[in-house]
Specification:
385 residues, alpha/beta, TIM Barrel, 16 helices, binds flavin mononucleotide
């Protein structure tokens, strides 16, 4: 898309997506739970981290290469799992996965994705991770894990912070509730965004492509989503980690932990990594900002366990601040969704490049030519953050 180079920040990309997407779809992405204070606090807490730069260091050659789970990635930021993304752009999941491949960063496919495990496996040649929303029956969970293994997924991410849906009031007010129905208001909203509407009408309606295999044959896009929502397990406990660990021998990651005690327990149960996350503020509005709990979690689990941070990242310096406070890696959710909603794969690439360039400046200005140097910076949160 012409003009992408004029988008200088993730905030610009957000505005561009807001102009291009029907309100109900933009709000689905941008919104969060209840008063959305948790979402706001995520970014405010990242902004509040102060980092002391070091000077008189040769920063002439800089690299963002980062090791994680035995692989070298070109940047320390991957793409978080997101459901229903094809509402934003046809084949948005593929756009996200391909942009991640091109940047050599991880892409995590959601159980609630609108592209199947098999299609993503083929498109990426197995270079993706699979995120599991545990379903209420064991057979479906085992089958989802089998499908991820057969598609050569490199890691399994179990999301634990969504045992019950968050109260997303923008969605409720917009009529964006399950089962999805096209109300006159939504049709008008779509018609006012002609290019989005033309793309939407020219393609099959987005549906939960991985979950479709377990639903009745006549399930529509809307009833499928309700089918899945009704089957998300509310009874998953620590005891279930053992059988998952037994059937999955590649890296196993828990997403959504926020307490040091939980991270220590995960480590003891053989979990390889934790995504310190509050789901971008979409679940528990009163949850702490992940950046605020990260130092205590790092202190509790020790230096070896992989800690990945998401929620609130809108700047390359946010990635730097997370690495300075103990993260090994980071993820973004909305930053790349704003990109895909603006311009498909090119928009995702632009979002990733904005973050890369900002992180490069952060490295140059703090005296950190290598990503590994960032952990040695003096950085801190004000006491109240
Ligand atoms: C539209 C949307 C859909 C999401 N769907 C999922 C999902 O299916 N599974 C999951 O584990 N997390 C999901 N998340 C949470 C993201 O994986 C991630 O934790 C969050 O977006 C990070 O915060 P950020 O958006 O501020 O970067 C979703 C987030 C958004 C914005």
């Amino acid at each position: 898309m012409a003009g992408l180079s004029r988008i200088l920040t993730i905030a610009d990309m957000r505005k561009a997506a807001q102009r291009r997407l029907p309100r109900a779809i933009f709000d689905f992405v941008d919104g969060a739970a209840e008063d959305e204070q948790g979402k706001a606090h995520n970014t405010q807490a990242l902004d509040a981290v102060r980092v002391t730069p070091n000077y008189l260091i040769d920063i002439g050659v800089r690299s963002q290469k980062t090791e994680l789970f035995g692989q070298t990635w070109d940047r320390p930021v991957g793409i978080a799992p997101t459901g229903m993304s094809n509402l934003l752009w046809p084949d948005a999941d593929l756009c996200l996965a391909r942009a991640a491949l091109a940047a050599n960063v991880p892409y995590i496919l959601s159980t609630a994705a609108t592209t199947s495990i098999e299609d993503i496996g083929k498109a990426t040649d197995g270079r993706f991770w699979f995120q599991l929303y545990a379903q209420s029956d064991l057979e479906t969970n085992l089958d989802l894990i089998r499908r991820a293994r057969e598609a050569s997924a490199q890691a399994l991410v179990l999301t634990v912070d969504a045992p019950y849906p968050g109260k997303r009031e923008r969605d409720m007010r917009n009529g964006f509730v399950l089962p999805l129905r096209m109300t006159p208001k939504m049709l008008l909203d779509g018609a006012l965004h002609t290019r989005w509407a033309m793309r939407f009408l020219a393609n099959p309606a987005p549906r939960l492509a991985t979950i479709a295999a377990y639903a009745p044959d006549n399930a529509t896009a809307g009833t499928l989503a309700a089918f899945m929502a009704a089957r998300i397990s509310q009874t998953l406990t620590w005891d279930d980690l053992a059988w998952i660990r037994d059937v999955w021998d590649k890296p196993f990651i828990l997403k959504g932990l926020q307490s040091p005690a939980d991270a220590v327990r995960a480590k003891a149960l053989g979990v390889d990594g934790v995504i310190v996350s509050n789901h971008g503020g979409r679940q528990l509005d009163s949850a702490p900002a992940p950046i605020g709990v990260l130092p205590a979690i790092r202190a509790a689990v020790g230096p070896e366990m992989a800690l990945i941070l998401d929620s609130g990242i809108r700047r390359g310096s946010h990635i730097g601040r997370a690495l300075a406070l103990g993260a090994d890696f980071t993820l973004v959710g909305r930053a790349t969704l704003y990109g895909v909603g603006t311009a498909g794969q090119a928009g995702v690439e632009r979002s990733l490049d904005i973050l890369r360039d900002e992180l490069d400046r952060f490295q140059a200005q703090t005296g950190c030519p290598e990503i590994g140097d960032i952990g040695g910076l003096e950085a801190g949160l004000p006491a109240a953050a």
